[in-house]
Structure formats: C-alpha cells, structure tokens
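Question (not urgent): is this output format expected?
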Amino acid sequence: MPGLDAVDLDLLTALADDPRASLVALAERLGVSRNTVYARMSRLEASGAFLAFDRRIAPEALGYPVTAFITVTTRQKELARIVAAMAEIPEVLQAHGMSGSSDLVATVVSPDIHRLFDVDAAILAIDGVERTETSLSMGELIPYRVQPLVERRRRALRGRAE
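Got this back:
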C-alpha cells in the first residue's frame, strides 16, 4: 500500500498497540475526528490492509500445549485437494505454500506427542502427500508483530518529506 500517509501509519500503530480500541479512543489518541478514523479504517480495510480480526485463543487453553511445524511434500497437481483435506484436520491451525524442497508448511497443535504422531499420520494418509517432516516448537521467541514495519514505513515517509 504505497499510499499510506502519517495519519494512516499513526492509526496502524495505535491498532497494533490496542486492537480493541474504539473509534473514539483512536480519534483521541491521534488528535483527529472520529469520522476521519472511520473513513481511514474503511479505506484500509477495503484495500486489504487488515488481516482477519478475531480473538486469538491460545491452543494451550484448549488443552493443546504442543506446537509443531510439519513440512509436506506433495504431488503438485493435487495441491488444492491436499490443502482442502488438511483443513479438515482440526489440529492444523495454518498452512503456507512454500518454494523450495517442500510444498507446504503447516502449524499444528496437539495435546501430546502421541496425538501429534497421529496427526502426522493423517496428513501422510492424504492421497498425493509424498512425505512429511515434523519439527517441534520449543517456544515462540518473537510473536507476530508489525510495529517495526510501520516504523520503517514512517521513517521512509519522513525521508521523502524532507
């Protein structure tokens, strides 16, 4: 989104700091009107700037303390069907298409290692999956964040203004 200005960046920073902030609170923080915040958020949303909004629930709270990343090698022509089948496995939280030696990487949670073995077996049983490789997460060291990118964009915007 090359058209971001300082107000957009301030709004994104405020939302990254407090995703549940009301329009009124955002307007007060930014020193602009509520209508300005509403218009900016509507434009940002329409342009695809926001990811899906939901309350992030820790899998541990549901009894799934084990997180793993499973790389999956597939028969390329069957990728869409394989992804659809993987989406039917509740423990598969997310999957990304990859370049390189593997075709997919899935984020998977499990109550224990035994169930993780079963999930891996379920993925392997999908027709067209050739192999998997599982790596256990030892802990999230850098949580999902965008603030450093917003700050970089802000510095670039200031550099053009000078």
